[in-house]
TrEMBL record:
Pfam entry (one): Sulfate_transp
Protein name: S2611 protein
Organism taxonomic ancestry: Eukaryota, Metazoa, Chordata, Craniata, Vertebrata
Domain of life: Eukaryota
Single GO cellular component term: membrane
Xref: InterPro entries: SLC26A/SulP_dom, SLC26A/SulP_fam
Domain SLC26A/SulP transporter as annotated: residue spans: 36-314
Membrane disposition: Multi-pass membrane protein
Subcellular location: Membrane
GO process terms (BP): transmembrane transport
UniProt keyword Plastid present: no
């Protein structure tokens, strides 16, 4: 720390640590990082839109809820976050869990998110992080592998353009194989083309040589263009696929199954609803807690385990 000449520090004195994490890293931020951060923000932002729609569909919720959850947490985490690699917003595993414990009801999903946040906050205040040490790695890997298989196969029906497929895994597998003859050619071609483009751009980046400062200007510009395209491959593929679908829409011939219209704007800012109006009456708060059951323990624990796993990986 900087100290004026001739001034001695008091024994045991310390500079007060800022309460907000943003005040710790923002003064040390270098403007040299800004171009890459802007590129990363554009790539992640454009990728988050279709990803959020897919997560909402996986959770069985209206698509706009995927968009809400994809960006709202980022505004809070940029002020309070301490790990830059932690995923903020919906994830595949959490969406799958919400599908199981929210019963495709937005009211249940919002209340589940609120209660899980309260539980995680209480665990942090009570220093209960040691409980995660008792969850073995085989259990985590087994659950993650099963969730990965379920999530991956859940997207097959979307690539093939099949509708009306059940959400249960074995019924989904049976119905997808039984109705594979109903595959929409446009959806299949576009989906497989996007997968091939993503794989090709990823391989291109891994084999891209380092830029040579003494190379001609044209070579350096070409290297930069290839590097940007390979780095922002997700956003690039999303934009290209969107332009293709829009072109067919303008021409009046749409071979793809589109998402459809999504309500505009943001929902009103209010506390979660602690009751649910049903056709045969009102579901009170205790009944909603009973319906969610073990989800109130599983969902916050899995959220913490995901964050811990990412923190350890990076």
């Amino acid at each position: 720390r900087y100290r004026p000449a001739g001034v001695r520090a008091m024994p045991g004195s310390r500079c007060p640590r800022p309460a907000l994490p943003v005040l710790r890293w923002l003064p040390r931020y270098s403007r040299a990082w800004l171009p890459l951060d802007v590129l990363a923000g554009l790539a992640v932002g454009l990728t988050a839109v279709p990803q959020a729609l897919a997560y909402a569909e996986l959770a069985g919720l209206p698509l706009q809820y995927g968009l809400y959850s994809s960006f709202m947490g980022c505004f809070v985490y940029c002020l309070l976050g301490t790990a830059k690699d932690v995923t903020l917003g919906p994830t595949a595993i959490m969406s799958l869990l919400v599908s199981s414990y929210a019963f495709h009801q937005p009211v249940y999903a919002v209340l589940l998110a609120f209660l899980c946040g309260c539980i995680q906050l209480a665990m942090g205040l009570l220093r209960l992080g040691f409980l995660l040490d008792f969850i073995s790695c085989p259990v985590i890997k087994g659950f993650t592998s099963a969730a990965s298989i379920t999530i991956s196969f859940n997207q097959v029906k979307n690539i093939l353009g099949l509708q009306g497929i059940p959400r249960q895994f074995f019924l989904q597998l049976y119905e997808t194989l039984r109705r594979i003859g109903e595959t929409r050619a446009g959806d299949a071609v576009l989906g497989l083309s996007c997968l091939a483009a993503l794989a090709g751009l990823r391989a291109m980046k891994s084999h891209l040589p380092q830029a040579v400062p003494t190379a001609p200007l044209a070579a350096r510009i070409s290297h930069l263009i290839v590097w940007i395209c390979a780095t922002a491959r997700n956003a690039l593929v999303v934009l290209c696929a969107g332009l293709v679908a829009y072109s067919f829409q303008v021409m009046g011939s749409q071979p793809f199954r589109l998402t459809g219209s999504i309500p505009q704007g943001l929902p009103p800012f209010r506390p979660p609803r602690f009751s649910l109006a049903a056709p045969n009456g009102t579901v009170p708060f205790p009944s909603m807690l009973q319906d969610m059951g073990v989800g109130l323990a599983v969902v916050p624990l899995m959220g913490l385990l995901e964050s811990v796993a990412i923190a350890k990986a990076f």
